[in-house]
Amino acid sequence: MVDKRHEVDRCNCNVIHEEIVNQVKAKMPLEENLYDLAELFKVFGDSTRIKILWALDEAEMCVCDIAVLLNMTQSAISHQLRVLKQARLVKYRKDGKIVFYSLEDDHIKQIFDQGLIHINE
Q1: What global pTM score does this model have?
Q2: pLDDT at 29 exceeding the cut of 60
Q3: Which of 45, 53, 62, 100 is the most exposed place for a label (fewest CB within 10 A)?
């Protein structure tokens, strides 16, 4: 007896919808862009980084302030900020010896807003 719960949904037709395939293929981003997009979404896959981004959407903050806000060490926050900088999600400016972080641009806020809309539907 075959257990139907483990069958994979697949198309059993022999007809190829060539027009549809060609339309989608023509609009498909370059492979390297899709890879970069996947890497971007991996950065969003960490709740600490999400909290940092959320905080920086509210206000420009230094490492010390973020560490206190999230009840974490400055070292842990610095590590996460480094990841966020590499992904071009945050930027910084120096004011004397203090380094302030903020979101790189409005796109990050839009990603957040769309994600929250989606999970709250």
Answers
A1: 0.79
A2: yes
A3: 45
